[in-house]
Amino acid sequence: MLKIGNHEFSSRLLLGTGKFPDFDVQKEAVNVSGTEILTFAVRRMNIFDPDQPNFLEKLDASKYTLLPNTAGAKTAEEAVRIAKLAKASGLCDMIKVEVIGDFKTLLPDPVETLRASEILLNEGFTVLPYASDDVLLAKKLEELGVHAIMPGASPIGSGLGIINPLNISLIVEQATIPVIVDAGIGSPADAALAMELGADGVLLNTAVSGAENPVKMAKAMKLAIEAGRLGYEAGRIPKKRYATASSPLEGMSV
Amino acid sequence: MKLIVNGNTMEIARVQTVEDLIKELKLAGKGAIVELNEEILNKSQHAETVLANGDKVEIVHFVGGG
Q: TM spans, by residue (chain B) (predicted)?
């Protein structure tokens, strides 16, 4: 069971809703992924096009816990405004704090992320900051009282997987709140590794929406996350430099 | 009445409240979230909030994102 603030989930996959080829593929991918948490962004409506598609209508949003992000924010104040806009919908109390400090790498600004998280905690939000994989930053965010910490595996949309597994495992080791590896996941193996390192969940988007077959990839990610989690709970064998025979060395018939 | 909606200056007649404006733009029931002069409104306030000439209105909604 994944517990974030007052919410409980049986799925450990958090799925983004950006860049799917169309709404039908998205709906099917969301369905087979088994996710219970969907992320999305807040943007201006096109006031000249009343027929613009609305993905919430297609998805039956009431079946999911919605996790809006503050993507587009460059400062804590901008992130807080976007978070409040999202909450004014009356559909959610969780917020993924995302304050981008550099638009080439899309890496999060640690100082603004910390500031935004503090303000939003005081406003009563359930706060999930997307952060770099810095161990001390994760600790400081936890000390503020955030409800989960979401270190990046690698830059958003890069598909590079977990660049620094040591940092992710150190963050997991020190945390008493859920750790959700967010951003940079490319393949099921990346997602499984995150879970084997002890992460409580994985948030991904492009890895599924950008796959040649998003629906099949959604299923693959679901299974990878379940497999990785089971492997972590089972406790893997230590790595050794030399062989250890699986079959008995005695009693050979010669 | 002159309103600035999502950065567009518009002349809109027959509109008194925020709810009227959303209906006039045919955006009712589409999950519009409204900020009026930099103050965010809850859904329940749309019907009772009266617009004035020169008001700055931002209308946003949820879109796909990660």
A: none
Instruction: Supply the DSSP symbol for A241.
Output: S
Q: What is the pTM of this model?
A: 0.93
- Domain of B7? 2-61
Provide the number of CB pairs (under 8 Å) joining chain A to chain B.
95
Number of domain units in chain B = 1
Fold of A8-234: TIM Barrel (3.20.20)
Residues listed for chain B: 66
Torsion angle defined by CA atoms of residues A202, A15, A6 and A135, in that order, rounded to the nearest 10 degrees:
30
The 10s digit of each residue's pLDDT in A120-129 is 999 999 999 9
Q: Hey, which residues 70-99 in chain A have their CB within 8 Å of chain B?
A: 71, 81, 84-86, 88-90
Residue A96: active-site member? yes
Q: Is A198 annotated as a binding residue?
A: no
Query: Which pLDDT value is given to residue B61?
Result: 94
B24 shares contact with chain A (CB less than 8 Å): no
Residue B41 located in a structural domain:
yes
Tell me which residue of A215, A191, A214, A210 sits closest to A202, measured CA to CA: A191
